[in-house]
Design brief:
The complex is a heterodimer of chains A (266) and B (395).
Chain A: E1 2-6, E2 9-11, E3 17-18, E4 25-26, E5 32-34, H1 36-52, E6 55-61, H2 67-76, E7 80-84, H3 94-111, E8 116-120, H4 131-139, E9 143-153, E10 157-164, E11 167-174, E12 177-181, H5 193-200, E13 206-209, H6 211-214, E14 229-234, E15 243-244, H7 249-262
Parallel strand pairs in A: 1-6, 1-8, 6-7, 7-13, 8-12, 9-12
Antiparallel strand pairs in A: 2-5, 3-4, 9-10, 10-11
Helix pairs in contact in A: 2-5, 3-4
Chain B: E1 3-5, H1 15-19, E2 25-28, E3 31-34, H2 43-47, E4 53-55, E5 71-74, E6 77-78, E7 81-82, H3 84-100, E8 104-110, H4 116-122, E9 127-132, H5 141-155, E10 159-163, H6 166-178, E11 183-187, E12 189-192, E13 199-205, E14 210-215, E15 222-226, E16 243-246, E17 259-265, E18 278-282, H7 289-302, E19 305-308, H8 310-314, E20 335-339, H9 345-348, E21 356-361, E22 374-377, H10 380-394
Parallel strand pairs in B: 5-8, 5-10, 8-9, 9-16, 10-15, 11-15, 18-19, 18-20, 20-21, 21-22
Antiparallel strand pairs in B: 1-4, 2-3, 6-7, 12-13, 13-14
The chains are: A alpha/beta (266), B alpha/beta (395).
């Protein structure tokens, strides 16, 4: 069977710091990583491959350096990787992104039918959790979100356990389908050094597809294909005026309690 | 084809072919030819020196969006009643509807849910679209998407709000893509641009480090999911009336292909910190259970709930249902007292709605101070006992 795993390269937000003067993100020197939830999706795919035999294709859209994420996914055990990279893809919102990814999955499917698309629940930079369901809609396949465990069954079905706040739902769903993953039982594997070297030395089956390779028009993708637009970005800082309470611990405590009484919080 | 060659002007110089990023222009008989690889990006247009390339690539004029009217709220049902976020959406929706001078409506899907209409009316819905059908008894992505998509196509609302709940975040993207709409996830602030009537949708990104205001100028309805617990709930007006509009449901068996096999409820949580008015929270700086028992003492005096960061939960210092932050819960207490919490963005994302934030930390540069109203640089093992003493003396 053929499994496509969607991965996004994101800044490692555990390392993100704010510029104390401007309150904006300091991006320089911040490492890029595979989005954590996408790593779980890839692990899920690789376990299905080990259990049932499958060809795992990792698919990403991003700037040229996103090939690093695809390479790392290859090093973890994906059979091949495709990066969708084109200046026209830039500035895409989730509609345009899911359209572009959807067209790439359709192209992969013309070579060999794709039975399962796995993605992380959400990316740590945007936190939208929209790409999985939107790709499912593009393909016209059912979706299973918030998956903590997934198995394949005879008869072309998957069985998944969905973690929701009220409890865990066990569902079965016919293939082809899209599933978004938020957890895997046990640990996620590390990349293998020899495969990483192969990817870096252009010896791995990694491809880069541009807009023409997908047969998409400029107006359908990127900023032009995005119904939503960013009007402004700003730092949430500044809404609060921090008062620094100085002195000994007893003085600090007294000042705080006085302030809280002033706000009628005590 | 949006780009074409004007053959009488073409000299066959090949400049356009070299400018094309897609290799989509071929030279044949000293004339340029545009092939099927063309994506209409327009890069060739600037390259031609002989006015031999033309295109109809222009900024399209804004479509007439005036027929889209009304602010809609998706009335998610949870455990037989409207989810708490629905009341918040109606409160916010009423404000937007007033700004637009349009109607506020709720959309209710389910089976035998008509009794909930009264509740939605009391919270300000002037109209309730009611889709009642056995197929809708349990939430199903595909069945709900079909009903909503057909209803939206027919009724053409200007705005559609949903809760950024697990259900809302499963349904909204599916629906928005079916209708090729824009969708802004997890908004914490909404307003109407008085000039254009556009919905301005503000949301945190990078775990709350950056706020972005998004709008959808060319497409209606404008769809947004709204983070639960952020907007003020609608006031309750007993006996308010809403017009009920029954929605015809034409179910399709393909919509029910995802079968529910079993459901294992999570053991009921003892506490719900999202409702707490005062929260005392601890992080890595508490260094262990002893630190937390100190916080517990303080919490008892303040009538507060205890909470913790992801680290504190992973270390077992505090129960998982008390985790605040991106992977935990979003809280909006009157007072949030953060002790020994450095304030990773994932944690700060969960406390932005707090009215007052107090931070106690030894490191003056800790990011938690950037969101604090009151900052105490100091050792919590000295400051917290001083607070406890002060409270005991004061009472």
């Amino acid at each position: 069977m053929n499994i496509v795993v969607l991965v996004k390269q994101v800044p490692d937000t555990t390392e993100i710091k704010l510029d104390p003067k401007t309150g904006t993100l300091i991006r320089e020197g911040v490492a890029s990583v595979i989005n954590p939830d996408d790593r779980l999706a890839l692990e899920t795919a690789l376990r299905l491959k080990e259990a049932h035999g499958a060809v795992v294709t990792v698919l990403s859209m991003g700037p040229p350096q996103a090939i690093d994420a695809v390479s790392e996914a290859y090093a973890m055990g994906a059979d091949r990787g495709v990066l969708l990279c084109d200046p026209n893809f830039a500035g895409a919102d989730t509609r345009a992104t899911s359209f572009t990814l959807g067209r790439a999955i359709e192209r992969l499917g013309r070579e060999e039918p794709v039975e399962l698309v796995l993605a992380g629940r959400q990316a740590i930079d945007g936190d939208t959790a929209q790409i999985g369901p939107q790709v499912a809609e593009h393909l016209g396949w059912p979706q299973v979100t918030y998956v903590q465990e997934l198995r394949l069954e005879d008869g072309g079905r998957l069985r998944a356990w969905r973690r929701l706040p009220e409890g865990v739902e066990e569902v079965v769903c016919p293939l082809p389908a899209v599933a978004t993953v938020l957890e895997v039982p046990g640990e996620v594997r590390w990349p293998l050094v020899d495969r990483l070297l192969a990817a870096c030395e252009d010896e791995a089956p990694l491809a880069v597809w541009d807009a023409a390779a997908l047969g998409v028009k400029a107006r359908e993708v990127g900023l032009k294909g995005s119904p939503t637009q960013v009007r402004e970005t700003f730092s949430p800082k500044g809404e609060r005026h921090t008062q620094w309470l100085e002195g000994s611990p007893a003085e600090q405590a007294a000042a705080l309690l006085a302030a809280l009484r002033g706000h009628k919080l005590l | 084809m949006a780009v074409w060659i004007i053959e009488e002007n073409c000299t066959g110089c090949g400049l356009c072919a070299r400018a094309c990023p897609y290799g989509a222009i071929e030279m044949e008989d000293k004339l340029a030819h545009i092939t099927g690889r063309c994506i209409e990006c327009g890069a060739c247009l600037a390259a031609c020196r002989f006015e031999a390339l033309a295109s109809d690539l222009e900024e399209e004029p804004l479509p007439d969006l005036s027929r889209y009217r009304g602010v809609w709220v998706f009335a998610e049902v949870s455990g037989g009643s409207p989810a708490p976020v629905v009341r918040e959406l109606l409160g916010e929706g009423a404000r937007l509807a007033r700004a637009l001078d349009q109607e506020l409506a709720a959309v209710l899907l389910g089976h035998q849910v008509e009794p909930l209409v009264e509740e939605l009316a009391a919270w300000g819905a002037q109209r309730v679209y009611l889709a009642d059908h056995p197929h809708l008894a349990r939430y199903s992505t595909l069945a709900y998407t079909r009903v909503l998509a057909e209803l939206i196509r027919r009724q053409a609302p200007a705005v559609l709000l949903m809760g950024a709940t697990p259900l809302g975040r499963d349904l909204a993207p599916r629906l928005s893509r079916r209708l090729e709409l824009g969708l802004t996830a997890d908004c914490t602030q909404l307003s109407i641009d008085p000039e254009t009537g556009n919905l301005l949708q503000t949301r945190p990104a990078f775990g709350g480090n950056v706020m972005a205001t998004i709008y959808t100028p060319r497409v209606r309805p404008q769809m947004a999911t709204v983070r639960p617990g952020v907007m003020a709930p609608a006031p309750r007006r007993e006996g308010a009336h809403a017009e009920v509009v029954p929605v015809e449901v034409k179910p399709s068996p393909q919509d029910l292909v995802v079968e529910l096999v079993s459901f294992t409820p999570t053991p009921r949580r003892g506490v719900d910190i999202t409702q707490a008015k005062v929260i005392v929270a601890g992080g890595r700086g508490c260094r262990g259970r002893e630190g937390f028992s100190l916080l517990e003492e303080l919490a008892a005096l303040l009538g507060a709930e205890l909470a913790g960061t992801r680290v504190a939960v992973e270390e077992g210092w505090v129960a998982p249902e008390r985790q605040v932050g991106q992977t935990g819960l979003t809280v909006r207490p009157e007072l949030y007292l953060a002790c020994g919490i450095s304030g990773a963005i994932q944690h700060r994302a969960g406390i932005l709605g707090a009215r007052y934030i107090v931070a106690v930390n030894r490191d003056r540069r800790a990011p938690i101070f950037s969101v604090a109203d009151y900052a105490i640089v100091g050792d919590l093992f000295q400051v917290v006992p001083a607070l406890i003493q002060g409270l005991e003396e004061g009472s």
